[in-house]
Amino acid sequence: MGVADPFDDPPERIYGIRKRTLLRVAIALVTVLVVAIWFRVPLAGVWAILWPPDEVSGRWFTLVMTVALSFLIPVAVVLRFADIVYDRYLADEDS
Predict the structure, then answer these.
(1) Distance from CA of residue 76 to its chain's centroid?
(2) pTM for the whole structure
(3) Is 15 left (phi over 0), alpha (psi -120 to 50) or beta?
(4) Considering its fold, how many domains does the chain have in total?
């Protein structure tokens, strides 16, 4: 009996990536797409201000970070929901 190698791919991996990670990435991409479609009019107005930048200043960077981080809360909530669904319905009993 040898020590199990922690770097072996367990059977719940697809192309070397865990199923939970694949679910998280897919859900996050769908959420970003839905939020971008839902807020397309305000994002289009902000995009006119953001690109092309006249100069990279603190105000420009703050606006970029505000827009980028506005996607964080919906993605975080949906990722938590995806973890709950995975644990409840998709996880194997032995893993």
Answers:
(1) 8
(2) 0.71
(3) left
(4) 1
